[in-house]
């Protein structure tokens, strides 16, 4: 298969949409569609329903399927859809097949949450999923610094549809080594730690980055992408400074408020409710005001 259109889509801002809830706590379909259209109208070319910013682990099986279907309906013809899948291998395969049936283009495989991960077992897990959906592009989400580039290379040799890697280890030097050991040109390397890490990762081989902030301000994320593509690192760092406090709030206490801050910003803009599901928690009132002030300063 020709995966080049999918590779192009990954080399961009890969948006991770939030999953809004209604007053009863169910997925708010209308709000979700509206948020997706806002992303698409803003110029986003790749979206990942059921990502961590979408509260993947807090959604039921039925809700994950619903979010997948809603995303495909809104994004078809406008952006590539990269559906998050995970849990045990059988559940991940079932979700990947559902994504294929719904009309998605790719699946992103969440890092296994099992406490015991062997490198060969990591390969087997991803190979099982990739071989079940050879028509789809497959993107492992890698947060484990112990997975070596050689293991990724072996997975790519076995599965041609593994076309990219979302790399989310807080170490640009480690990323540079892993990407080169795996094959810098064999995979599309997506900086999985969003805008604050995008410039450093870009300098050593990434060509795309994921974003939760893009839910709030698509133009800000795309401005950073444009600067990085142009080799304008001072311009990219101007965006970095603009968003630094917002992203620092999300990263506090091992990213405890990763989703909460984004939803708070959207609530301040009147786009969805601030509700999140446990183990996340809404912000206290002083932080709510700070988030609202940051967003107001962006003129979005």
Fold and architecture overview:
The chain is α/β, with parallel strands linked by helices and 300 residues long. Helix content is 50%, strand content 11%. Strands 1-2-3-4-5-6-7-8 form an 8-stranded parallel β-barrel, surrounded by 5 helices.
Features:
11% strand, 300 residues
Task: Summarize this entry quickly.
By secondary structure, the protein is α/β, with parallel strands linked by helices. The protein contains 12 helices and 8 strands. The longest helix is centred in the C-terminal third of the chain and has 23 residues, at 233-255.
What's the SSE blueprint?
Elements: H1 4-10, E1 13-15, H2 29-41, E2 46-47, H3 61-75, E3 80-85, H4 89-102, E4 106-109, H5 119-132, E5 137-142, H6 149-158, E6 164-167, H7 172-182, E7 188-191, H8 198-203, E8 208-211, H9 218-229, H10 233-255, H11 258-268, H12 285-298
Parallel strand pairs: 1-2, 1-8, 2-3, 3-4, 4-5, 5-6, 6-7, 7-8
Helix pairs in contact: 2-3, 3-4, 4-5, 5-6, 6-7, 9-10, 10-11, 11-12
Protein name: Dihydrodipicolinate synthase family protein
Family: Belongs to the DapA family.
Pfam families: DHDPS
